[in-house]
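Hi R.,

Quick one: here's the TIGR03089 family protein sequence you asked about.
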Amino acid sequence: MTALAIYRALVDRGAAPALTLYGPSAGAPRLDLSGRVVANHAAKAANLLADDLMIDPGSTIRLDLPAHWRLITWALGGLLAGAQLSTTEGDTVVTTNPDADGDDVIVVSLGALDMSYPGDLPAGVIDGNAEALGQADILLDESSAAPVSPRPLRSQGRALIVDPSPEEFIDAFLAAIGAGLTLVVADSAHAEKAAAAEGAAPIAYAD
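And here's the predicted structure, written out as tokens:
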């Protein structure tokens, strides 16, 4: 399957939750993101990468972001644009650090309401919040999506992951959406509350 199947699953989910987040990954005490909202943000990121930056399918994007919901939308956006994902290398960098090195540097502010980067950026550095906001919220090119292989799950309903690394967060998100589940993400301080409030059990992979 390709990332397009994940995108379409999110679109089809509509207003139903795809991600429920507690603590730092939310940028707020608790945040629900519907399938439609995640799909829209991912489409905006993909359109920016493909149309404005014209990244080549198969190129690598370095995701220098913590385990936050914006990591997911930029990761899926990169996959929809045909890119490979890495947390260590890549000429195009999506980061919170305005001074990061890269041929193209996209700076993302993690504030829940930040529509632009709240400060000055070096020349040539792209304000990921503002530039993505101006993109269409539907995927303009469905032909470039990269292949994905979500891990099979034994989980049902709502799957909980606690204190994930960025890589673990992306893997769990793809697996949950691919299986038609909602992913609940929490830090250890909120894990018990999240599990009880959401009726979520720890994510269980079948492999």
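Residues 30 and 65 are 19 Å apart (CA to CA).

Cheers,
M.
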